[in-house]
Amino acid sequence: MHYREDFPYPIVCEDVTIPVRDGIRLYARIWRPVTDEPVPALLEYLPYRLGDWTAPRDAQRHPWYAGNGYASVRVDIRGHGNSEGMPGDEYDATELADGVAVVHWLAEQPWCSGRVGMFGISWGGFNSLQIAALAPEPLKAIVTVCSTDDRYDNDVHYMGGSVLAVDMHAWAATMLAFVSRPPDPEFVGDRWRGMWLERLEQVDPFIHTWLDHQARDGYWRHGSVCEDYTAIKAAVLAVGGWADPYRDTVFRLAEHLEAPMRGLVGPWSHQYPDRGLPPGPAIGFLQETLRWWDHWLKDEHPSSDTGVMAEPRLRTWMNESVPPATRYAERPGRWIGDDSWPSVNVDMTPYRLNDGLTATTEGPVQVVSPQHTGVDAGRFFPFGNDSDLPPDQREEDGRSVCFDSAPLGEHTEILGNARLRLRVTCPSARAQIVARLCDVAPDGSSTLVTRGVLNLLSRHGRERSVEWVPGETEDVSFDLVAIAHAFPPGHRIRLALSSAYWPWIWPHPSDQGFTVDPGASALLLPVRDSSGDAARAPIAFEEPEQAPPLGVVYAAPEGLGPERIVRRDVATDEWLLEVDPRYGGSRSYPDGLEFSEDALETYAIRGADPLSARTLSVWRVGLSRPELGWNVTVTTRSEIRADAGHFLTDNQVTAEEDGRTVFERRWERRIPRTHG
């Protein structure tokens, strides 16, 4: 990593509050170049507290943009950090309206040229797309990283119509802890306590709302820009990573957007591509986005001729085959380009399950998996930690029904979404199908390539629940998550089918599995012809570059256990998965803030009992400023269980000041299992 200190412009930084339509003021930090000329503004708009949680990351990029001639602005969403107002649901109408107001406010400042861009990763990538769909006139371009166009089927809540136990709960629990943190008296003064207690009184765990909407209804359509791609007028640079669950969005945007668009998918996890976190290689992402901003926000300036729109519509990293591992410092591969999507270079090639892929038995194949199938799935949101990625899949394959190709005679590359067509007979009204695509080496090791899920209640569309007539046979189809992967000669392509995938997928109350007719079923692989790549100009990026680090000091962890551990009680056949998400840990900031963070997620299930599934998340966050005598702690506990008819949620928040409890609340809910 190159830390740059010499920029074309000197930089000034100031904290301000930005008024929105109802008099609420949002807390913002603005880095600006020292110049008499108005400059474009770039906005990153998040709930994650610019004063502490994202401050190290903000320091990497906002000053860098300012030094290159942009006013770079980081704003906390209302009810979060030091912003006024009450917190709301993610991407609610108030959040988006406030975002539009901030865009207009920035455009009206005397130091701004009137042109605004938005960027962000995850939440900030989501609301960049959503605010672009509201089309405020000053917003000319966005960079959206690891984001989604479909809040129901490509977010942390549902997958293939199935409840995402692993991250619907984990993220709801995380946000309960996050939203319960107080404002900082260093910035808001003595108001902090009143603001904090008022917020705590308004808190309602997100999990209640998310489980209240188990099919794709109007709640999920709100903010899903796939409902109307034509609403987006701003130019869109969409970025994803092969280790990130949102990568399908880049391909859908490349296919459907009418606004100017370029897509970029690398080997990365759920991180900005310049941060150098596994899997790499990292790229000079800030320089690449500067090309984007210069083209769209400075189109009358000589630097606007950046050549960025001469790039292929879709640039992707073609992963080479690797032995299974939970961490790769770098994935071997190469950059490839496609001028359109769908690409003329990609052909959907069918592999029939009784021909191109074969099982170890002939005739109909019954799939009834143990409930702990999925314990080797890896993290839903890889963050670059040591245990994020799926380990060797041989144990998972043993809990599934597998269809293998013969050893490949030639190098075979795929790019895009594989599609599975199955003729299924189901003995019960509800079931789920999980498909994994694996790369099996000659030594038998099995590397996960991609996967997909279908809740059979959603087989006729995510908007409605249609129970299966027990004993009936139907044809169903669904896509696996997009991937780029090169299978070497001598390796086998494996399709593994299971009826369970814990803790990613919450099991139905009764899991009797399903039966597949291989002769009427097929896997369609998006095989890419790479013969034309040699004639294309090489795709390359500069080396990663950032502004100097903030100077945060990270505390040495005490008694730190494993990131991810699986335990089995042999007598009861209970499987317990414990996960330390390791978002950042304890740290000290240059301005005197002391921050501590501990979390543990637990997922438990018994191998033959889907009703034994339970999830637990415990968080403890501490904030202190010794020079002010300020010391607060937030502790949360979130649990989900289920019986045959309901999800049972139990959430608790305890807030302390100087060791004294100032707020305590518990929510217990029974939510009908209408779809999940």
Would you tell me the overall average pLDDT? 96
Helix content: 10-25%
Please state the CA-atom Rg, rounded to the nearest Å. Answer: 25 Å
Q: How large is the share of residues in beta strands?
A: 35-45%
Derived from helix and strand composition plus strand pairing, the structural class reads alpha+beta
Number of beta strands: 35
Number of helices: 11
Shape: globular
Distance between the termini: 45 Å
Uncertain spans: none
GO molecular function: hydrolase activity
Domain Xaa-Pro dipeptidyl-peptidase C-terminal: 290-540
Keywords: Hydrolase
InterPro entries: AB_hydrolase_fold (IPR029058), CocE/Ser_esterase (IPR005674), Galactose-bd-like_sf (IPR008979), Xaa-Pro-like_dom (IPR000383), Xaa-Pro_dipept_C (IPR013736), Xaa-Pro_dipeptidyl-ppase/CocE (IPR050585)
Keywords:
12-stranded mixed beta sheet; 11 helices; 9-stranded antiparallel beta sheet; alpha+beta; 676 residues
